[in-house]
Amino acid sequence: MDWTRQLMLCAFPLRGFSILKEHLEKQGVHVPYPAEDSTAEEPCDTAYYLHKTCPSPEKMNTAGEKVIIAPLKPEHSQLVSKTWKFGGTPAAETYFHFQISTFPSACVYDQYGKPLSWILMNYYGSQGVGYTLPDHRGKRYFQLASRQLISVCLEKGYLPFLFIEEYNEASRNIHKKLGYTWKEAGRCAYIRINR
């Protein structure tokens, strides 16, 4: 492996960080502890959905507004990229076009087909990149989208799981309401090397 190239280790277990750091330092690569400086992301917790079923999204009250729940469409990759904290670049838009075209996702659309809230499945199986447009927050749309994606995962035999950054209390609260469970051994971080 060429350790001089830029690399991101997704959700690397913090319990194994000292081993990774020792190995990389032998290769001449400095790896800061997560949150030590800007080359590593905030530590995350791993949350699992350990239930066999998920309450139907159709049974949720959406304040009487007519919405549609369906997968994201590839043409929405630019919108998803612009709302992601690392997005807004052509590379991020290409990445999301691939993700949306390849893996399950769920989106709440208004009656005219405009995306209001969504969540995707990442290439390594976790759910993430969830977002609700600011004008539509507080209407439980993200819970609708999440329930839909959980249901799709369960139907396919996947274990729904996700990583929530330490600072993201809003996401943590929503996922607790959805029935996710945190495991203490699930501490991890997104490690960026040679950024």
TrEMBL record:
EC number, UniProt record: 2.3.1.-
A single GO molecular function term of this UniProt record: glycine N-acyltransferase activity
Alphabetical keyword list: Acyltransferase, Transferase
Keyword field contains Membrane: no
Gene Ontology cellular-component annotations: mitochondrion
UniProt cross-references to Gene3D superfamilies, sorted A to Z: 3.40.630.30
Domain GCN5-related N-acetyltransferase Rv2170-like span(s) in chain numbering: 114-182
Highest taxon listed in the record's lineage: Eukaryota
SUPFAM superfamilies xrefs: Acyl-CoA N-acyltransferases (Nat)
PANTHER family, per the entry: GLYCINE N-ACYLTRANSFERASE-LIKE PROTEIN, L-COA N-ACYLTRANSFERASE-RELATED
The family this protein is said to belong to: Belongs to the glycine N-acyltransferase family.
Protein's recorded name: Glycine N-acyltransferase-like protein
Gene from which the chain derives: GLYATL3
